[in-house]
Protein: Glutathione S-transferase family protein
Amino acid sequence: MYILYGGDFTRAPLVQWVLEEGKIEYELRKIDILNGEHRTAEFLAINPAGLVPVLITPDGDALYEVAALMLYLADRHQLTDLAPSPTDPDRGPFLSAVFHVAGDIQSEMKRFHFPHRFSLRLADSAGVQDLAKTLILSRLDIMNMRLEKRGPYVLGSRFSLADFYLCFWVAYLDREGVCLQFPSIARLYDLVRSRPSAIPYLEETERMAAAYAEMMKKKPGGVIA
Ligand SMILES: N[C@@H](CCC(=O)N[C@@H](CS)C(=O)NCC(=O)O)C(=O)O
Structure:
């Protein structure tokens, strides 16, 4: 059986959603990152980087990097409705979208949520957060143009985990603002959010995003050091 280390205010729900879509058995072990559980000796022995999520496979490997976990599970369990197989012509555009979200959107979300780590002075934090948001919006603008030309999903008429991945980060951002500004992303968000398996995850993510934004207001010096 798989073991997933995840928890609130993490991106682990992305992996949980794939596990549940694939009806794959797993045990969830919650790590409370607000209370620093990701930095305990016990967790660092599992992932020395001190980052969540981590997936322990039935073979005993400890895998990390959320995009890798989603792709690994989809490939390993042949969930071709979530990830086109390596010989499918859609595989290239699919990988391209997944890596774009991982490398260019998700990484800026880290700066958006942890601006204090990228600021030499506390006073610079708000500017770092604004800059991260501006960069994310410029990338969503391009995504929006692509969806406008060839939507409604990232792969045209075919849903894939790339859509859920993108929507997860939209849910963690200023969702309403993004949807107003980018109609094709709004349409995608509505479509993904209407999928029964996605509803609880996106709703929960919307709640987490609102709660995290409140915490950031109260602790401008950083919710997590
Ligand atoms: N590149 C990694 C980043 C993982 C990551 O940053 N996880 C966050 C939770 S979503 C975390 O563990 N944060 C704790 C921290 O940064 O101290 C991935 O995509 O899986």
Summary: Residues 10-11, 33, 38, 51-52, 64-66, 106, 110, 224 surround glutathione (CB under 6 Å).
